[in-house]
Each structure stands twice: as C-alpha cells, then as structure tokens.
C-alpha cells in the first residue's frame, strides 16, 4: 500500500510539473475562424484578446491555394508592403514558434488580403518565466495541448516507480 501511495504522489507531482510550465502551448490563429479573409473578422482584435509567451506556437490553418503567412517588419505591416518579408509559410498548416519577446507582425500576401488578414501580437518580456499572470486568460485553451506533455511524464514515473 505504501508504494501505491508513493506512486500516486509521484504522478501528482509529475502532472503538476507539466502544468506549471516548460511546455509551450499551441494557439490557433483566429480560433474557430482560422486564417482566412473575412471583413467581419478582425484579427487585431483576436490578437489583443490572446496571450502568447516565448515557447508557444502560433498555428496557422488555411487553404494554401488561397492564403499564405508572412512575418514582416512593422513598416511593411502598416503599409501592407508585400514586396519582401522576414519569413514565409505556405503549407496551410503552419506552426510558428514564438522564440523571442518582441512584437510579431503577420499578414497574408495574396492580392488585397492584407486589408483584413493581418495582425500584430506582442510577446511581453519575461512572459516565459512569469507563470500565473500571463497564462490566466488562456487557462482553458492551454490545458488540452499540455496534457500531451503529461502522458509521457506519467509513463516515466510509473516505470521508475516499478523499480522501487
Ligand atoms: Cu489570404
């Protein structure tokens, strides 16, 4: 019985560790709307209501024949300049890793799309290390992807508990 209690404790600790950070969350750009052109959907508003931290992934889902994703400079973003870009994605299911605390600028470079299909998102300094405050608004969204991190950890804990 004592070892069962101990195993349970280990699993609880593992779950706690997985939930408390270290695992970036996946954020689907536009939510259910995904990445498309729709004059009634404001991506800037979506971005303002979305919290991202270093280590998170922005997931762009779209029809790759109709749209693409570009990260651009602030000036290119403001003027919808599509002559150049920092980076481009075009698979239709792209994962963009947030790897620095800065403001990211995204747009679709298909003709005319930038008018509605663009947003900037600020990644606040220190957001990767300040857990509760930055995470609260997305707590329900971030839980599911993180369960992926809990499973392997629990298996590890179970395995090691078997050798005790
Ligand atoms: Cu587009």
Defining key terms:
globular, 5 helices, alpha+beta, three-stranded mixed β-sheet, binds copper (II) ion, 164 residues, Immunoglobulin-like, 36% helix, four-stranded antiparallel β-sheet
Overview of the structural elements:
This protein is α+β, with helices and mostly antiparallel strands and 164 residues long. The protein has a domain of 114 residues: Sandwich (Immunoglobulin-like). It is 36% helix and 18% strand. It is built from five helices and seven strands; from the N terminus they run αβαββαββββαα. It has a four-stranded antiparallel sheet with strand order 4-3-6-7. It starts with a helix and ends with a helix. About 27% of the residues have low confidence. It binds copper (II) ion (CU). The site of copper (II) ion has 7 residues, from loops. Keywords: Disulfide bond, Glycoprotein, Signal.
For the record, the CATH class of the domain at 24-137 is: Mainly Beta
Low-confidence stretches: 8-21, 129-159
Helix content percent band: 25-40%
**Tally of DSSP β-strands:** 7
The largest beta-sheet arranges its strands as: 4-3-6-7
Rg: 20 Å
Largest sheet, if any? Answer: 4 strands, antiparallel
Output the structural class: alpha+beta
SS element count, helices: 5
End-to-end gap: 13 Å
CATH superfamily placement of the domain at 24-137: Cupredoxins -  blue copper proteins
CATH fold-level label of the domain at 24-137: Immunoglobulin-like
Element-by-element helix/strand order: HEHEEHEEEEHH
Q: What is the annotated CATH architecture of the domain at 24-137?
A: Sandwich
Mean of residue pLDDT? 78
The set of bound ligands, ions and cofactors reads: copper (II) ion
Dominant shape: globular
How large a portion of the residues is in β-strands, by DSSP E? 15-25%
InterPro entries: Cupredoxin, Phytocyanin-like, Phytocyanin_dom
Signal peptide: 1-24
Domain Phytocyanin: 25-127
Organism: Marchantia polymorpha
